[in-house]
Amino acid sequence: MTMTKSEIVAAVYGKVGGFSKKEAADIVELVFETIKETLGRGEKIKISGFGNFVLRDKRQRRGRNPQTGEPLTITERRVLTFKASQILKSILNPDDPEEREAAIEALAKMGRKIESARDEAE
Question: Which 3 state secondary structure label does DSSP give 37?
Answer without folding.
Answer: helix
